[in-house]
Automatic annotation (TrEMBL):
This is Laminin EGF-like domain-containing protein. It comes from Effrenium voratum. Residues 1-20 form the signal peptide. The keyword Calcium does not apply. Keywords: Signal. It comes from the Eukaryota. The keyword Signal applies. Residues 511-536 form the Laminin EGF-like domain.
């Protein structure tokens, strides 16, 4: 019975001349309110409310009409909520297809505790992936609801158990599972001998109307994404203005947050290749009304398609779109109409119905004036053209203030497109606004078209998303404009809602970071700065120059000395960045870990690393130690803090030598820089034999800087690999087939080490 009612109601809608298989937003569901939604039947006991639920998903089966040959756009779901709720709770909704797959779920939102009688609570679906495809004319979906706490929802009688709301216990956090066959779920809502059906409804259609009361109507005719079922037009521009649909949705929310109430947004969901909704309704050369397309809208009409029947369907939908947009404009009493479009040019072009030659002519006057064009301006309802288009209170000027790096034309900073007159202009032409702006503008109805450059729309983003800063910048500019010309009191602070962390300040919709920080929320260290104890510090880093060749180094237990090593490295330092001096902060050594165990010889026992810094004369300046446990990650820098070091100064020398020394309490593998400069070799890899032969575990840097005659340097050699653990992990080394392992015969290597210093 209920299904039949749906079908009958839908038949009436489908038979109406404007519908066909193209869709205005249509309500699907149950509960008696909204076009296309089934009403409670006579004889029902009426609204029965007060069913508590929590940690339960409820599902209602709803027939879907009009989405079988062409997909529909999923817009929102409403749930009947009882006025007697006593607990605020989060709730969310979703949609399952008849085959059991979850196709969409909403963000969680609050169910308020206090509501008028039997309130509808709406959950909006937003984003790029809200296309709903069903498989046949008889198909249906399941609308599902879950709440975190007990919330009272509104029910009415259902004719049978089959029509009744299904129930499944599942926690709010885990709802909804990806696949669920609701047809076979046993739970049914029932009490007092009656089966009950949840009041829940869904809007589907090819046009989205986001409601609002601000004196502002956002319009997006070229951002549609539905292509299936729509043949490609044979003439005209086919590419959609990418992400203008999403930009419009987010701008709608942004203005809601700034102004306390939202604008209206009208968004066309069919891709431009199928219908150009910024054109007069017509095909070939003529409009439906018999006028020439050439006279109407950029020489074209909406729907030049190969087949006459496709054309009829497309023209019907274009008419639906335009009648919905017209009724929003008519009902809004002079609200600002803002069509949102995209341009391939790297600037914002504002269409105010003034041509390039109009703007050039006015800019050439002394003083510049648009007085000759007042009657053509699309903003004439709000003021004269010179003031509304070039003034510092114009929309273009507000936008330029909010995004100073972007070229915005026309604005007080850029009056006209001709670069000979207006030198900041990058292009000689300008788009002055399209058909939908033209047909709605009157002496009492203002509008301005916004052509958004790719960067602001997030043209290359994946998944598709507009640039967040651009949404805030355009939102702030519109807020300023509404405050001035419509006496609104929107928040114009451009950074509303922008998080810049503790090292940034929001300016012009982007985070301006303190010195040393960068990133969208100023959380990263800028170039030349390093993170030291949670702060980004300006550091001079002495170490291997970029691109230096590395060798995977080893410290072998079986080298000729048979001892753990103490290594030194001479740095010929360039301290020119240090100004009056640099405070050495730490020494970093690069360690290579080549398997889960961090080498068979770097066992899991913890160890100590010591480092010291010596000056050119051989005096130890400072030292430090770091306790380490074995690390599984491969290839890391090991940092050893150096406390209380004196400032290093350039003095009058071009280069100051410092020596880094390192010791370890067990064998580790470190990386070597191949072939350090000749001057560094005599200090490369040296150790003081006498000190360490006495007690290898009592490591120290003392006397380290003493020159070691080359003859006493370690006499490492190339050796045959005896087992994989002896392999020096040279590229393409295959120990099993008997390659040569790393040794140090004839070559001197330096540690891969850096010294970071903070300028005083
Ligand atoms: C244009 O409008 C502004 C603001 O209302 C006003 O100050 C200015 O005098 C007007 N200019 C002309 C030429 O009417
Ligand atoms: C620095 O070296 C001296 C002498 O070897 C030692 O006593 C001291 O503990 C070391 N300091 C640190 C921080 O390792």
């Amino acid at each position: 019975m209920l299904q039949m009612e749906f079908a009958m109601f839908a038949w009436v809608l489908l038979a109406s001349p404007i519908l066909g298989s193209s869709m205005a937003p249509i309500c699907h569901g149950f509960g008696g309110i909204g076009d296309g939604c089934a009403a409670a039947k006579p004889g029902d006991s009426g609204k029965s409310s007060g069913i508590s639920l929590g940690d339960t998903t409820l599902a209602v089966k709803v027939s879907v009409l009009g989405c079988f040959s062409k997909p529909c756009w999923l817009q929102n779901i409403r749930v009947g909520v009882d006025d007697s709720n006593s607990v605020a709770s989060l709730a969310k909704v979703g949609v399952y297809l008849s085959d059991g797959t979850l196709v969409a779920s909403s963000q969680a939102r609050d169910v308020p505790t206090s509501l008028p009688d039997h309130q509808w609570l709406a959950f909006a679906f937003r984003g790029h992936d809200k296309e709903l495809r069903t498989t046949s004319e008889q198909d249906y979906v399941w609308l599902v609801v879950n709440t975190e706490n007990s919330v009272k929802l509104t029910y009415e009688n259902a004719d049978s158990g089959d029509e009744a709301t299904r129930t499944v216990s599942e926690l709010f956090a885990g709802a909804f599972v990806a696949v669920r066959i609701w047809d076979t779920e046993p739970g049914r809502r029932q009490w007092a001998g009656h089966f009950r059906n949840l009041r829940v409804q869904m809007d589907l259609g090819d046009v989205s109307i986001l409601p609002g009361t601000l004196p502002l109507i956002l319009e997006s005719p070229h951002g549609g994404r539905i292509t299936e079922g729509w043949p490609t037009r044979v003439t005209g521009v086919l590419d959609s203005d990418r992400n203008t649909d999403l930009f419009t949705e987010e701008l709608w929310s942004e203005l809601g947050a700034r102004c306390g109430r939202t604008p209206v947004a009208v968004i066309f969901r069919v891709a431009r290749k199928g219908i150009d909704a910024n054109r007069a309704t017509g095909s070939g050369t003529h409009t439906r009304g018999g006028e020439l397309c050439a006279d109407q809208s950029n020489s074209q009409c909406c729907c030049d398609l190969a087949s006459a029947s496709d054309e009829e369907v497309a023209m019907d939908l274009n008419d639906v779109y335009h009648s919905l947009l017209s009724s929003e404009v008519a009902g809004a009493n002079g609200a600002l109409l803002v069509p949102i479009h995209g341009t391939g040019r790297d600037r914002v072009e504002l269409g105010v119905r003034l041509s390039a030659s109009d703007l050039n002519q006015g800019a050439g006057l002394a003083p510049p004036s648009l007085a000759d064009h007042d009657s053509d301006s699309s903003l004439r309802a709000l003021g004269n053209a010179t003031y509304m288009i070039w003034g510092t209170e114009s929309f273009g000027s507000h936008l330029k203030n909010n995004r100073p790096s972007m070229e915005v034309i026309p604005s007080s900073k850029l009056l006209c497109p001709d670069p000979n007159l207006c030198s900041a202009s990058s292009y000689t032409s300008i788009f002055n606004g399209g058909y939908n702006l033209k047909i709605h503008i009157t002496n009492t109805q203002p509008g301005v078209q916004v052509e958004m450059p790719q960067v602001m729309r997030g043209f290359w983003s994946s998944p598709p998303a507009p640039e967040a800063a651009a949404v805030k910048q355009v939102g702030a500019a519109l807020a300023s404009f509404l405050n001035l010309h419509y006496q609104e009191s929107c928040q114009t602070h451009v950074n509303f809602g922008l998080a810049c962390g503790s090292h940034g300040q929001a300016v012009s919709g982007t985070c301006m970071c303190e010195d040393g920080y960068e990133g969208s929320s100023c959380g990263d260290c800028a170039e030349g700065y390093l993170l030291v104890t949670g702060q980004c510090m300006r550091l001079v880093v002495l170490g291997p120059p970029p691109g230096v060749t590395e060798k995977y180094g080893s410290a072998f237990a079986t080298t000729s000395s048979g001892r753990p090593y103490l290594y030194t490295r001479k740095f010929s330092t360039d301290l020119t960045d240090c100004g009056t001096g640099c405070q050495p902060l730490d020494m970093s050594v690069r360690i290579r870990c080549d398997d889960n165990q961090c080498h068979s010889d770097l066992d899991s026992s913890s160890y100590t690393l010591g480092a010291a810094l010596f000056d050119a004369a051989g005096h130890k300046m400072c030292n430090g130690t770091a306790a380490r446990s074995a690390q599984a990650a491969t290839d890391w820098w090991l940092q050893i803090p150096l406390a209380s070091c004196p400032l290093l100064q350039n003095g009058n020398q071009d280069h100051v030598a410092v020596y880094l020394a390192l010791w370890t309490s067990k064998l580790i593998k470190i990386r070597w820089e191949q072939e350090p400069a000749l001057s560094a070799r005599s200090r490369g890899l040296q150790y003081k034999t006498a000190d360490y032969y006495q007690d290898p575990s009592a490591q120290s840097f003392e006397h380290l800087i003493d020159a070691v005659p080359p003859a006493q340097l370690p006499s490492w050699r190339d050796l045959s690999c005896e087992s994989p653990s002896h392999c020096g992990t040279q590229d393409s080394c295959d120990c099993i087939s008997g390659c040569t392992c790393r040794s140090w015969s004839g070559n001197f290597y330096g540690m891969m080490a850096t010294l970071s210093m903070q300028p005083a």
